[in-house]
Amino acid sequence: MVSASYARLITLEEFIIQGQNNFKGATGELSQLLRDIALAAKIISNEVNKAGITNILGLDGSTNVQGEMVKRLDIFSNDQMRHALSRSGNVCMIISEENDEPVRTRSSQGKYVVAMDPLDGSSNIDVNVSIGTIFSVFSRKTDRTQAPDITDALQAGTDQIAAGFVLYGSSTTLVYTTGMGVSVFTLDPGLGEFFLSERSVRIPAFGPAYSLNEGHINQCSRAVQQYVKQCRQPDKISGRPQQCRYIGSMVSDVYRTLLNGGIFMYPETTALPKGKLRLLYECYPMAFIVEQAGGKAVDCRNTRILDVPLTQIHQRSSIYLGSPTNMDTLTALF
Ligand code: AHM
Ligand code: MG
Question: Looking at the chain, which terminus has fewer C-beta neighbours within 10 angstroms, N or C?
Fold first, then answer.
């Protein structure tokens, strides 16, 4: 992506500062938080890229040549994100897929709460499939003079002030929104610098693909079965059947949907009546990003994901997101 002229490229740092300058009353704390996340992303990216060679060297849980126990990458990513988020003192609480309970940082006066899936899709590492980090940022509800509590953790999707994900793929890509559009950055691994690759991403109004674990189709609702059946027929817009594209790694499937359009679904099934994905740190942030790009995101009741109430930090939800036209076709069947 980065070729002859670096001069015209905007670094993540520059972009964050520009955004901060355009926002009256900004204190710089959110900017610092985004920088901290970017730092953790670089460290995780570096480690993910070494995963294959680590396996060859026999470091996956066994003792390595330096005598250290190598942690699984998802634990490593959780630790890196936690360290990064604790650096600046701006985060008072972290909710992670890897931790049963919300974790209070040492900065009890910190202004923000971050929910995250530090390494989503990690079961795909062994087969070299793209994986990612998903995050969601909230302002705390409690007063800064007191310790954060569960009300800080259980916030509404519409309370998110920023959300994003990092995709560790053929390149490392950081996608985020602060509610003013979606921006994409690509890591130049040689320089260790994220450069702006796309600003104000818009999801195509219609896309030619549907994405779900079709192996579960017989366990899905009639609406989903009917939609998939429809996708297999030539559609009115392209005259061709839709493509089925499913990586099984949410960050990758959502990123493709964001850029190329289409629909991504993780429906409720008879085996998983509440769906599989987690509302707080998978569905909320992806829904925020997709909406900011002009798309839609709902659950199986056609409730906007950002309006689905959160009652438990690890709560699951069904999710359907993507291009408005594809989404309207699906939800008409609900
Ligand atoms: P994880 O958080 O344990 O990695 O699980 C989430 C992942 C998503 O990335 C992906 O969309 C989904 O699980 C795939 O599930 P399935 O294998 O059931 O299709
Ligand atoms: Mg996950």
Answer: N
Question: Which fold would CATH assign to domain 209-331?
Answer: D-Maltodextrin-Binding Protein; domain 2 (3.40.190)
Structure token pair of residue 10? 């905007």
Q: Is the CB of 250 under 6 A from ligand 1?
A: yes
**How far is the CA of 112 from the CAs of 3, 64, 116, 201, 234, in angstroms?**
37, 38, 13, 26, 48
Residue nearest to atom 4 of ligand 1 (CA): 121
Q: State the DSSP code for 124.
A: G
Residue 121 beta carbon below 6 angstroms from any ligand 1 atom: yes
Assess whether the C-beta atom of 296 lies below 6 angstroms from ligand 1: no
Under 8 Å between Cβ of 64 and 57: yes
167-201 pLDDT per residue, tens = 999 999 999 999 999 999 999 999 999 999 999 99
CATH assignment of 4-198, given 3.40.30.10, 3.90.10.10, 3.30.540.10, 3.40.50.10790?
Answer: 3.30.540.10
